[in-house]
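Cross-posting from the modeling subforum.

Setting up a comparison between two proteins and wanted a second pair of eyes on the formatting. Protein 1 (sequence, then structure tokens):
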Amino acid sequence: MNIMGLLVALLIGAVCGFLAGQIVKGHGFGLLGNIVVGIVGALVFGLLFGNFGLFGDTILNEIAGGTLGAVVLLLVIGLFKKAT
């Protein structure tokens, strides 16, 4: 992966994490945490469902899938936080 690909992945991860934090209120983790949640969420979504394919544009697919994965991840994290 080149430096431009890494920067795009970080930017998409930040957007996905931010959107997921807005959807699931009270579970934002700041910029760095949102990037991590967004990237992990995108990986989780990709492993579970593959390519989202709802939109024709690849970046919109990545943002939509990453956001959905990050929302699921935040909900799971919230369940574990409440259990402890």
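Protein 2 (same layout):
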Amino acid sequence: MSTTYKDAPTQTVDVGGVTFAYRELGPKGGIPVVFFVHLAANLDNWDPRIVDPIANGRHVIAFDQRGVGASSGTVPDSVEAMADDAYAFVTALGYDTIDVFSFSLGGMVAQALVAKHPSLVRKLVLTGTGPAGGKDMDKVAGTTYYDILRATLTRSDPKEFLFFNRNATGKPAARAFVQRLQERTADRDQAVALRAFQTQLKAIKKWGRSAPADLSTLTQPTLIANGDNDRMVPSVLSEDLHRRIKGSELVIYPDSGHGGIFQFHDKFAPVAVEFLSL
């Protein structure tokens, strides 16, 4: 098994006519940590400064959702259907218990997965995300398109605007994060298609406008993290999750946005490692 995410080979598994692309690293055996990625993201969008420390002691699996990156098929138009795909992928690999590390849209998918298959998930990490029916969740699309335009005008990566504050601390953190995503130079994933991105945005809007879930039924140990100025998925939604998920832990990083865990990777990675310890 590879010891670093940038060197982990891309593999595939066929499930019901869909080919899922995935990468795994770390010591095999026991309960794996499955990573659920964000909007418009493929396998190359995980920060190695978070993946690698977790994989130092745990078996880590990251995958492309259906219709995203190197996975075949069409992107589902609902978060719940994405959760069904995640369940199909995980069980196809032969696992009946997993830990979940999720970010943004991935956190929504993770919540839907736990609601449908509570016995599958042992521990849950929810970062930069919010609950179904959360306040202003349905405005994610507008914010996203606005920041993509701003990034295009300055020839920047949209994530620099969407994930980080545009100030003296946020700008260098953004550049460093984007550079880390380029550390993998071989066997890079396929870019996410525009139609796939648009369908994901529609699914997020539908999630934001749906009835609130009963999170009191969620019994898994849960770690929630975000920056204090998340413009994509408002930081108050992380606090909302914390209030509604009994016994959950909440970490909010100062002077940071949607990508607070990436800006503060040196502080967050040890917290995640400790939380996910067996």
